[in-house]
């Protein structure tokens, strides 16, 4: 039987950390967004600076207030594809998902969206049986820094309408990624719903997503069939997870990480308006 850890040593070198940046650094963002193409986004620096200077930490700006001015209404809707590298125990991945959803809801009259989730491992050697979240965080960050991190995350979650729950266990996330990767075979909408359910279980309800029953309950709730057969065999789906990791996540060093239409890259807990600007960039791209 394979151990409940990431089976490939190469994966471990990429598991460095969870992105925690909420404010947008313009230079960093523009460099990241264009690193794969050596071209600048079709937007002015002034526009980006305006977004940055009007965004405060832990403050969610309602994108509906300006989205109508960004996207003209047309009769034809195009599809924007979003690839997300994420780990199921990363709180900023949950924050980013909520903000991404707000942005997509704001632009739904202009675009259709396809969101695809890919695995990343923050703690690839975490034990299958799990350890108390509070003990793990205190050991990893130290007692003083731990208090600050929990306080900050509590405020961020509250700004989104959620209660940040530090009770329960944390541990190895391979089984959750096996299930998420498998869910994509039944449709990306179901995969997206599963990711949301697992995030809520872990961050807001104190459930351990290394627990097979928790995973099965989440799969059943969102209508994913065949989950029991998948999870019964610890080797099933490992190859698919590895392929997804190598293709989408092996070149990054933190999550959440987003690639829009295979070209425009974002990382960290970005606010909705940054996603909207990236949608605009993709829509204005001549190759779109």
Q: What secondary-structure arrangement, pairings included, does this model have?
A:
Layout (H helix, E strand, L loop, with lengths): L25 H9 L10 H9 L10 H7 L7 E9 L4 H16 L4 E9 L11 E2 H9 L1 H17 L9 E2 L3 H10 L4 H17 L7 H11 L4 H6 L5 H12 L7 E4 L3 E4 L4 H13 L4
Parallel strand pairs: 1-2
Antiparallel strand pairs: 1-5, 3-4, 5-6
Characterization of the model:
This protein has 288 residues and is an alpha+beta fold. The protein is built from 12 helices and 6 strands. The chain has a domain at 18-119 and 261-288. A 4-stranded mixed sheet has the order 2-1-5-6. A hairpin with a 3-residue loop joins β5 (257-260) and β6 (264-267). Residues 1-16 and 20-70 have low confidence and may be disordered. InterPro entries: DSBA-like_thioredoxin_dom, Thioredoxin-like_sf. This is DSBA-like thioredoxin domain-containing protein. GO terms for molecular function: oxidoreductase activity.
Instruction: Please tell me the overall pLDDT.
Output: 81
Distance between the ends:
46 Å
In total, the number of strands is 6
Order of helices and strands: HHHEHEEHHEHHHHHEEH
Tell me about the largest β-sheet.
4 strands, mixed
Strand order of the largest sheet: 2-1-5-6
**How many alpha or pi helices?**
12
What proportion strand? 5-15%
As a percent range, the share of helical residues equals: 40-55%
Structural class: alpha+beta
Poorly predicted regions are 1-16, 20-70
Rough outline: globular
Radius of gyration: 19 Å
GO molecular function, one term: oxidoreductase activity
Protein name: DSBA-like thioredoxin domain-containing protein
Pfam family, one: DSBA
Organism: Musa balbisiana (Banana)
């Amino acid at each position: 039987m394979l151990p409940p850890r990431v089976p490939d040593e190469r994966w471990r070198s990429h598991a460095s950390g969870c992105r925690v940046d909420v404010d947008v650094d313009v230079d960093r963002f523009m460099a990241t967004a264009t690193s794969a193409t050596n071209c600048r986004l079709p937007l002015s620096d002034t526009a980006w600076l305006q977004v940055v200077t009007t965004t405060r930490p832990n403050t969610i700006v309602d994108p509906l207030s300006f989205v109508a001015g960004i996207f003209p209404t047309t009769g034809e809707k195009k599809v924007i594809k979003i690839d997300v590298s994420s780990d199921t125990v990363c709180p900023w991945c949950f924050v980013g998902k909520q903000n991404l959803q707000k942005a997509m809801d704001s632009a739904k009259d202009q675009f259709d969206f396809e969101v695809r989730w890919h695995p990343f491992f923050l703690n690839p050697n975490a034990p299958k049986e799990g350890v108390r979240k509070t003990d793990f965080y205190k050991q990893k960050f130290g007692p003083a820094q731990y208090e600050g991190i929990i306080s900050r995350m509590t405020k961020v979650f509250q700004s989104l309408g959620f209660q940040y729950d530090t009770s329960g266990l944390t541990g190895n996330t391979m089984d959750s990624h096996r299930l998420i990767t498998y869910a994509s075979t039944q449709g990306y909408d179901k995969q997206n719903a599963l990711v949301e359910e697992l995030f809520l279980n872990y961050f807001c309800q104190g459930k351990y997503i290394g627990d097979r029953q928790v995973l099965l309950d989440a799969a059943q709730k969102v209508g994913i069939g065949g989950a029991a057969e998948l999870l019964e065999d610890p080797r099933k789906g490992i190859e698919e997870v590895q392929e997804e990791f190598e293709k989408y996540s092996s070149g990054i060093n933190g999550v959440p990480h987003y690639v829009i239409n295979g070209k425009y890259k974002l990382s960290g807990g970005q606010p909705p308006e940054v996603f909207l600007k990236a949608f605009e960039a993709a829509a204005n791209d001549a190759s779109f």
